[in-house]
Amino acid sequence: MAIHDSLGDFLTQIRNAYNAKLPSCLAKHSRLKENVALVLFKSGYLRAYSRVATPKGICLDLQLKYVDGQPALSSVTRVSKPGCRSYSGHDELPKVLNGMGISIVSTSKGIVSGAEARKMKVGGEVICTVY
Questions:
Q1: Which among 32, 53, 86, 102 counts the fewest CB atoms within 10 Å?
Q2: What is the CA angle 101-46-74, rounded to 5?
Q3: Which region holds residue 34: left if phi is over 0, alpha if psi is between -120 and 50, else beta?
Q4: How confident is the model at residue 2 (pLDDT cuts 50, 70, 90)?
């Protein structure tokens, strides 16, 4: 049985677009991916994002952000994978680079950054870490 990790593919598309120094990238749309893009936008890793209609269906247009020619996002690491899920309580959520990066968490209140989850005192599935 094949397992397809669409969120992992989404994060890899973003990582590859930054490595290729592209101004933007297109990714297939889903609510999960859009919420992850919203967290990345709020945290300052994306310049903008929007939904666009293409002949193949609805896609997310991600406008990548660069600071002095360097990518705003240097590393994306998938934590919770389809074969091995990773859950944490609000007091055990990982701090990425001592607060310099963020973790993205799927909680009962929606997909939020690790800092917001700690503030709301809710834990959940740690999707990825970004810095």
A1: 53
A2: 45
A3: alpha
A4: low
